[in-house]
Predict the 3D structure of the following.
Amino acid sequence: MISDESYTRNALLFCVGFVLRRAADPRPYRPLLKQLALTWQSMEEEAGFLSKPELRSGIQASLDRILISLNSTRWECNFVATPSSTINLKVYRPPKSETVAISDHAVPILLGENLHIELYHWDLAIQWVIQHIDGMRNAIQISKIGEVDLQIVRACLGVLKYHDIIELVDIFMYTNRYEFTERATSLIAGNEPKLLQKAADYVLKDRSNRTAFPVQSVTSNPIRPILPTGIRGGNLSPGTSPLA
């Protein structure tokens, strides 16, 4: 409220607010509302930004720019509202909660390309663990192949999960779906006779008579690779903006 004799009833009342999604955390936006209200109050006292008809059109234009800018990946807006006033707002996210315990059988899946990962200055242990993440090995296998203590591997995976570099999938999850590796494709093409024979031996009841039924080829319907719900491979993607 701005008190002045020039206004009807000697005061000007105005309010501004953000419409957030139901699951969004409102705490980061409370300081922004206070700052925006104080800025508009100052602009009104100096130039009548809120009360003069010729300047009121700038209110909607400012709100549109604020909405678009705060929904961007930078979470900030900086623009000139009037020749003598600027609006500068920045959303500061609250710190994330501590990461959950990493299971020994958790399978890490990289959510971004190596180019994005290299933007971070990881320590040597994390850099070494990242090289052994292929979307199929679990924490125990990474520990054995990389010759790294399992506790260190779990700690590294926890850091990567905290920064949204990886997603962890339980290897025993019933809803998991699997895809062929390059070697499986070579098997179907008939370029892996030994592996093909091993696969046949695995399903044969009477292995002693396997020579009577030599395996020469195998066919299969193509399988579309599918990641668990909520996981996207490829580039790091910003989360859905909380501002509606």
About this structure: Residues 106-170 form one domain. The chain is about 35% helix and 10% strand. Residues 30-47 form the longest helix (18 residues).
